[in-house]
Structure formats: structure tokens, C-alpha cells
Target: Adenylosuccinate lyase
Amino acid sequence: MRLGAITPIDGRYREKLEECSRFFSEYALIRYRLVVEACYLRAFLAAIGKGSEAHAVEGLEKELWELPMEEAVEVKNIERRVGHDVVAVTLFLEKKLEERGHAALKPFIHFGLTSEDINNIAYGMALRDFIQTSLTPVLANLVKEITSLAETHASTPYLARTHGQPAVPTTFGSYLANYGYRLAKLTAKLKNLRPQAKLGGAVGDLSAHKTAYPQVDWVSFAEKFVEQMGLEYMPAATQVAPHERFSEILQTVAAIASVAANLCRDFWLFGALGLVEFGKPSEHRHSSTMPQKHNPLLFENAEGCFDLAADMLSYMATRLISSRLHRDLSDSVIKRFYGTALALTLLGVKNLIQALGQTHVKTDKMREEVEKTPEASAEILQLILRKHGVEDGYSLAAQAAEKGLGWLRETLSARGLDPRIIDEAAVTRYVEAGFEKAVMLVERVREIVRALNV
Model:
């Protein structure tokens, strides 16, 4: 733990989030930028007919992917001297070419580009790599955990609540499977969203390229290069790439965070209702003064992470669509906080998985709640009465919820109706329907997770 860290991402929670450093640290951004610059140099040289020179710089990208930390520090030192982060990258790359004996290629570094050509591709690659290698697998594990619980409790009777009040019976597995399915669908959507990027020079027209080397089809070059970097080409760009696809990705993560936060709140309520128990390691204390406490700490922590992440991601998604005229720099500082919001999401998912694994579901208490709440049969009761032509079936069922079924039988007999019709209002069918839905959703979720291929 880094006690001097400014944010808890790099301090208190660093151990759980160490992997995020590969994508969102300053070191990671330097590395991604250098790789993009090196890949562009090789592609550019090939495009202008300098194939042998392009061949000479092959392997530079691999070297830059493995950039030692001390060389990244060197890039930062150059930045302090020149006052520009991307220029520092190009100057460092010049040094690398000199060390390889290719100083003659220095004039072609960053040829015709603007900083945002490098930045938008670098950020796109980092976001893609984080989603594919870190976030999606952890989300898949969360979905699997929820689905496993749903399968275990597919037939566990559970009294559903609407507006906080007893509604009708279902099963706990049906409730859980709903969340599993929603999160699985959102995860699949996220995995299939490919970041967009542009390569267009100062204002997006490739005008410098076309003027310097008019014989080259630069639009095709730009599209091919962006695709080779693993991103989707965006031709309608100014100096910046439109942020709509990035926004869609961030909003999808925000939706995942919001759904997961709601699940955390629901489990908190289950604890308050006495339907689940929260576990803890034997030596852990959940209160400084009350030894008996077993608090939903991990659920609460995850909820806070998800709520903060969702707000940050939603703000970024809407704000970054805006850019004055052909470019302003207000987006730069905001983009540097991609990692904070995404790391919070990852932390929330990890804590939620751990919380679910430590939670004991009190199935006997759930079943008892259903059995001791006869008014939960009011819905099916009024429907059965109406099925048999009782026009005021809704009103009778409402009164029976207070006066009891004996009163209803007498009322029906007094009207010359067969009181046995209310025996058709069996809530056991509600539990069976919950079981059937749980089984159906569990299978569908597993199909989605298999397709994720993680």
C-alpha cells in the first residue's frame, strides 16, 4: 500500500487494482504512444516507397511494448524540458532511431500528424485492452457467481416485494437469474463494442499528407492503419475523433455499474429483513465496539464504487462529445481520469464477487415468510374469483386478506357459489413459475457467457 498516494485507487486499493496500471498509468500512456508512433513510422515509410527503411525499423514496436520504467522516466524528463507530452515521445523515438543507426529516418517521425492522432489511438488501444483482458473476464466471473446462486436457489420459495411491501411468491433463484441475465447481456455488448479512432492530421482532412505526397491514397492508408491497430476507423473527424463510440462504451460500463449497485442495495435489504447472513473472516471485526456485528461491508463498498463510477462515466460520456470548433484541450484532463472510473468499476465487481461468496442465504426463513403471509395469495385469489364470474372478485380478495379465507368461503356460500373454487388459488404454482423462469434464464446466461470466450 502506498501511504503517500493522493487517491485510494493508488493507495488503499492498489493491491486489488494493480493490473489497471498496465492500461491507465502515465507509464502505460507513454508506452502506448510510443508504440503508435513506431507503427505509424513503419507504415508511413512503406506508403511513400521507402520499403527497405520500413523493414529496418521492424521490431521497434516490440521493444517499446517492453519499455523499461527508467526510459519512461526519461520521456517525462524530456516533457519537462519541452512542455509537450507527445513531442517528448517523438524526441525519445528519435534517440531510439539514432541508437539503431537509423538517424536518417528521424524527419519521418510523426510526419503530417497532430498529437491527437497519436493520443486517440493510444487511448483506444488502452481501453480495448482493459475491457478485453481485465474487465470482461471479471464481469464473466460475477455473472457465473450470480448464476450459480440462482441455480442453487431455483426452487427456494421467496416472498417478492414491490414498493417494499409483500407482493406474491416467487423463488430466490428467479430473482437472482434476472440480475445474471441483465449483467450477461451488458457484458456481451461491452465486449463487442470496438473503440473508434481517426488519423487525419491537424483538422482531419489529411491535407498535409496529400500535399506532401499526392500520389498516395491517404484515406485508404489512414483506414488501414487504424484497423491494423485493432480499432474501428472514424472518417468524420476534425483534429479530434468524435467521442460517440467511446461514450457508448463508457455508458455501457456505467449501466453495468448501476445494475450491480442495485444488486448490492438489494442484498443490504435482505440482510435487514433477516433473509441472508453476511460472513466475515474469523479475525476480522466489523465494529470497534459491538463484537456481534456481521455487516455487509463488501456490498456497501462495492455499491459506493459502482455509484461513483457510474456518475463519472456518465459525465465523461456526455461531456467529451463536445469540442469547440476543430479542437480544444478541455478533453485532455478528463480523459486522464478514464482509469479512475474504470478501476472503480473493477474494484466494485471484485468486491461484489467476494461478498456473494461470503453470504449465507437463509432458505428456511424465506420459506417461512411465504407460508406466514397468506395475503400474498390475494392476486391469484381475485383472478380465480373473476374467472368464475365473480364481478367483485378483486374487492372480495382484498377483504379476505384481512378477514381470512373462512370469511370468504362463507360469503361465497351465502351467494350460492361453490366455496371450493378458492382452492384453485394455489400459490405453489407461483413458486413453480419462479423455478421455471430461473432454469430458463440460467441456461440463457450460460450460453451468453460461453460466447464471451473468456
